[in-house]
Amino acid sequence: IFQPLNMNDTRYVWDKNVDSARLSIGYDKNGKAYETVKNNTPNGADDLLTTVEDYGIFLMSVMNGNGLSEKVFDDMVTHQVATKNGKHFGLGFEIYNFKNGDYALSHGGSDKGVQTIVFIFPKTKKGLIMDIEELKGEIITKKRALKIIKNHGNSNFSELKDFIKKCGNRANYK
């Protein structure tokens, strides 16, 4: 998938092409940097090395269904596995359903001190990618998610607050 989408800064293993100056580095509460994990064995379920730009290309591809069969896209947006609090996962994404019929797909991952969380809205072709520090994650996630959701045009404020609470809980997962 990386080559057809020209995701040239994305890989599953550490190699000579990784520009470590462009990595998000996690820090402990004393400001000491955590050691960067440099995997040399690919693992499709963990440790994707990518840039915000490349990840955005991938997410736009998903939203537009590029390279996906209709069945695969339907599996992404259909409740496959129930989790707590009435939430569900589709294929590869957590699904957030809104009362107005719209929905968001979310995916996240983390390493010590840093995490990434994304929200995409396939119906409106909007999205949000957040690469955040774990110590401040809940505050940053809530503020940024609130801004993008407001821009998304969802006018039901109580539903927005519920969504932001879910985002905050997700931002603190381990």
Protein model, in words:
Helix 3 packs antiparallel against helix 4. A hairpin with a 5-residue loop joins strand 1 and strand 2. The longest helix has 16 residues. With 174 residues, this protein is an alpha+beta fold. The chain is 30% helix and 19% strand. The C terminus is likely disordered. The protein has a six-stranded antiparallel β-sheet with strand order 1-2-3-4-5-6, sandwiched between helices. It has four helices and six strands.
Entry keywords:
six-stranded antiparallel sheet, 30% helix, alpha+beta, disordered C terminus, 174 residues, 19% strand, globular, 4 helices
Distance between the termini: 28 Å
Q: Helix and strand succession? A: HHEEEEEEHH
Largest sheet: 6 strands, antiparallel
Helix share of residues?
A: 25-40%
- Which structural class matches the secondary elements? alpha+beta
Which residues form runs of ≥5 with pLDDT under 50?
Answer: 168-174
Per DSSP, what share of the residues sits in E-state strands of 2 or more residues?
15-25%
Number of helices: 4
Q: Write down the overall mean pLDDT.
A: 78
How would the blueprint of this fold be written?
Blueprint: H1 52-64, H2 70-77, E1 81-82, E2 88-89, E3 94-97, E4 103-111, E5 114-121, E6 126-133, H3 137-152, H4 157-171
Antiparallel strand pairs: 1-2, 2-3, 3-4, 4-5, 5-6
Helix pairs in contact: 3-4
